Automatic annotation (TrEMBL):
It is a multi-pass membrane protein. Coiled coil: none annotated. The chain crosses the membrane at residues 46-64, 100-122, 134-161, 167-191, 215-234, 240-262, 274-293, 299-324, 331-350, 356-383, 395-418. Belongs to the TRAP transporter large permease family. It comes from Vreelandella titanicae. It comes from the Bacteria. GO terms for cellular component: plasma membrane. This is TRAP transporter large permease protein. It is found in: Cell inner membrane.
Length: 427
């Protein structure tokens, strides 16, 4: 096993991609721990890990977001958000949050959300006198609504790894996502009055009816996705396919869809889906070795010896996921840690749907947390502002999200209320 650890360190410091790093280290570990004969079974184990119906929805939801982003939908959503909230003090900050809320029902990705909003709103906020680092921090923080409000790519991954209903996870994410949005609205309003941020003038505000008329096709997509799934008309995968068709029609009706846009969206989807799936494959190899070596049982025994059960274990889980999220991509941390840590929580009686929302929200905080917060990197690069100053400006928003995380963790009914209302078996 020492050879595998050395290999891991060598690959890590050489800049090897994470999937190859984990896969190669796992194979070396098979050879050095007395299990070389099991390497022949690895292709079967990998395909078994990927052969999950819920995973089929992931590339389709990614494609939906790519299509809508490239078809110029963001402008219509911003105009409608401006018509609703632009006239209030700190109006563009509210518009920033509302745009992320709208776009979250389409893309399911915080990084895509932060990139789109950074391109469109941060320059406008700077022109109107908002501090650039506040504008960037608000954009990064509000983009975290994306993976919580359905559809959510990481919820699909969690559902596939644990066998939890993706539809129930989607419904469970609505209230936590809205809670995050409401607290961001409240914080932005307080900052706007404290620092005298500008409000929109009547010249800046587009007509409400005209902006809604232009935005409603895009706004209808989240309704199509969620409504068809919640009322049992489609599975999440079928709902994702329906969303792709709707995105193409919406883009075409708005004049932003073309064969070139469709091709580039499919190409981007293939790259992103491939990168996620190869990570899942490499983790499947490591997980198989972990099972052979009895790592889950050792972890469970260590937790039992420490007396970590119930809320104490939940706090440990929160801490581990927070640290992991600071250094690892969300899909990587999810596929690596969920098989190790979540089964113990389930054995202690935690609801898998509630646990899924908590885990996904927990890891997403890492997207805006230094040193490797992906949304911070995206916003910093697009807005051309200093990364570390942006990270400092984001600290109050991280505090808000930590408070929401603890609320979600210790008040499970917030996550489980809507799934119960809509008849999902989450008792």
């Amino acid at each position: 096993m020492a050879y595998a650890i050395v290999a891991f360190c060598v690959f890590l410091f050489s800049g090897t991609a994470f999937a190859y790093l984990v896969g190669a280290t796992a194979v070396i570990a098979f050879l050095t721990t007395g299990y070389p004969q099991y390497i022949a079974i690895l292709p079967q184990r990998i395909f078994a890990q990927l052969d999950v119906f819920a995973f089929m929805a992931m590339p389709l939801f990614i494609l939906t977001g790519e299509l809508m982003n490239r078809a110029g939908v963001m402008g219509s959503l911003i105009d409608f958000a401006m018509a609703l909230l632009g006239r209030f003090k700190g109006g563009l900050g509210h518009v920033n949050i509302m745009t992320s809320l709208f776009f979250s029902g389409i893309s399911g990705s915080a990084v895509a959300d932060s990139a789109a909003v950074s391109n469109s709103l941060i320059p406008a906020m700077r022109e109107r006198g908002y501090p650039p680092y506040y504008a960037g921090a608000l954009t990064a923080a509000s983009s975290m609504i994306g993976p919580i409000i359905p559809p959510s790519i990481i919820m699909i991954i969690y559902g596939g790894l644990t066998g939890t209903s993706v539809a129930a996870l989607f419904v469970a994410g609505i209230l936590p996502g809205l809670l995050l949005a409401c607290l961001l609205f409240a914080f932005n309003a307080w900052i706007a009055h404290r620092d005298d941020h500008p409000g929109g003038s009547t010249i800046d505000i587009p007509p409400l009816f005209a902006s809604f008329k232009r935005a409603w096709p895009a706004l209808s997509i989240p309704i199509i996705i969620l409504g068809s799934i919640v009322f049992g008309l489609t599975t999440p995968t079928e709902g994702a396919a329906l969303a792709v068709i709707a995105a193409i029609l919406v883009g075409w009706s708005m004049g932003g869809m073309s064969w070139k846009v469709l091709y580039s969206a499919v190409e981007a989807t293939a790259r992103l889906t491939g990168s996620i799936f190869i990570i899942i494959c490499s983790i499947a190899v490591l997980s198989y070795l972990a099972g052979l070596l009895g790592w889950p049982q050792l972890l469970a025994g260590w937790i039992a010896s420490m007396g970590l059960a119930g809320n104490n274990y939940l706090l440990l889980l929160i801490f581990v996921l927070l640290v992991a999220g600071m250094f690892m991509d969300t899909p990587v941390a999810l596929t690596l840690l969920v098989p190790l840590l979540v089964p113990t929580a389930l054995l202690q009686g935690f609801n898998p749907v509630h646990l899924g929302i908590m885990v996904c929200f927990n890891l997403c905080i890492g997207l805006i947390t230094p040193p490797f917060g992906k949304c911070l990197i995206v916003v910093s690069g697009i807005a051309k502002i200093n990364y570390w100053n942006l990270a400092k400006a984001t600290l109050p928003f991280i505090g808000i999200q930590l408070v929401i995380l603890l609320i979600i963790a210790f008040f499970p009914n917030i996550s489980l209320l809507l799934p119960r209302i809509f008849g999902f078996n989450v008792l």
